[in-house]
Write a structure and sequence with these properties.
Length: 380
């Protein structure tokens, strides 16, 4: 069992507990974190059946009053109408500032529930229990909470630190492989940003990871958490270094947005984003052709294992007929942009990325067109 404590400006303590079997022993790990005898659990239908009902039963057996709020699965739940629905339920339940809000699910549940916790009564205690790889190693860590607008992803939100995060790699055994891949993409991203050795480990152990080997997943979760933690502690409010964690997300978020957060998963979007942004870096002579090929190869292990029709859809629907003017307009709403200057995170080498604030529409379009000509590497 490993316990990681994160301190933000001496007043924001977040305890992250990772290890197999955490959810099987809530008396030891969860109950001591609760601020009062009441809690609200936010989850989705599938996770409710897998873990939520049992969690409520066990907490109730220990004398806690726990109400569960169920919201639909999928990115479209990260919206003002769904947040308003949760606010209504909290008011009906007469929730107060000593009530702990627990999110149980993936990144959508964590982002949505975190947004609600940050804004309801100007803040109530928050605990994340992430049940996907993406949420365990990325979205639950660092206090970013947000909902989407139809014109921009994660544009309505705040920084709000949970009091704790409980990440149990054992729950990943029930995670569908396509959802596991979303998290693997984020692991590849953090490796490109911060650790050549982790990148090589991912490359060498990809088959074991996709087969849900417990030891491999445990190593992946703990290493990725440590790398993200180190970056966040340098820059908790995203003034400089934390921007690096957006590698692949400028293009990726724009792809998700113009497609109405439908069908294209976050992992697929970020993978495509890293490929396009790496190509921009190569065209700028910031990185070598050899480096670009490394990124292509490791991501091909994920994208090329999709069913053939899905691969065709991924390229034809989201890339082949892209409206560059619409896409650029969406990019202009990205949160990283500063004083009207388009800003991307571009990779230079394994373990080295840079924030570039003079990205031009022409070079983005050029990289997309070059990528479309090279798409055969995904279809092989």
């Amino acid at each position: 069992m490993k316990i990681i404590t994160m301190q933000f400006e001496k007043k924001y303590d977040c305890k992250m507990i990772t290890g197999h079997g955490i959810l099987s022993d809530i008396k030891k790990y969860l109950i001591p974190l609760l601020s009062g005898k009441e809690a609200v659990l936010i989850t989705n239908p599938l996770v409710k059946k897998l873990y939520g009902e049992r969690l409520v039963h066990e907490l109730s057996g220990q004398g806690f009053v726990v109400n569960m709020i169920e919201v639909p699965d999928g990115e479209k739940s990260k919206s003002l109408p769904v947040a308003e629905y949760i606010f209504d339920r909290l008011l009906e339940l007469k929730i107060n500032r000593s009530t702990t809000l627990i999110t149980l699910g993936g990144g959508v549940i964590g982002d949505l529930g975190g947004f609600v916790a940050a804004t309801f009564m100007r803040g109530i205690p928050l605990i994340h229990i992430p049940t996907t790889l993406l949420a365990q190693i990325d979205s639950s860590i660092g206090g970013k909470v947000a909902i989407d607008h139809f014109r921009a992803k994660n544009i309505i939100g705040s920084f709000y630190q949970p009091i704790a995060i409980l990440a149990d790699p054992e729950v990943l055994q029930s995670l569908p492989v396509e959802h596991l891949k979303n998290g693997i993409v984020e692991a590849i991203k953090i490796a490109i940003i911060g650790s050549a050795s982790f990148f090589h480990w991912l490359d060498q152990n990809m088959n074991d990871i996709l087969q849900k080997n417990r030891e491999a997943l445990n190593i992946l979760v703990n290493k990725a958490i440590q790398l993200k933690r180190d970056i966040i502690l340098q820059d908790p409010w995203e003034k400089k270094e934390r921007h690096y964690l957006n590698l692949g997300h400028s293009i990726g978020h724009a792809l998700e947005t113009i497609n109405c957060y439908d069908n294209l998963s976050h992992g697929e979007a970020v993978a495509l984003g890293m490929l396009i942004e790496t190509k921009i870096a190569h065209n700028r002579e910031m990185c070598s052709e050899e480096f670009e090929e490394k990124i292509k190869q490791i991501l091909s292990l994920l994208l090329s294992s999709l069913p053939f029709l899905n691969k065709q859809q991924l390229l034809n629907k989201y890339i082949q007929n892209i409206d560059y003017n619409q896409f650029w307009e969406t990019l202009t709403l990205d949160k990283k942009n500063y004083r009207g200057r388009m800003t991307f995170i571009l990779p230079e080498a394994l373990g080295k990325v840079s924030l570039i604030d003079n990205i031009k529409q022409e070079e983005v379009q050029k990289s997309f067109e070059e990528f479309k000509k090279e798409k055969e590497w995904i279809l092989c």
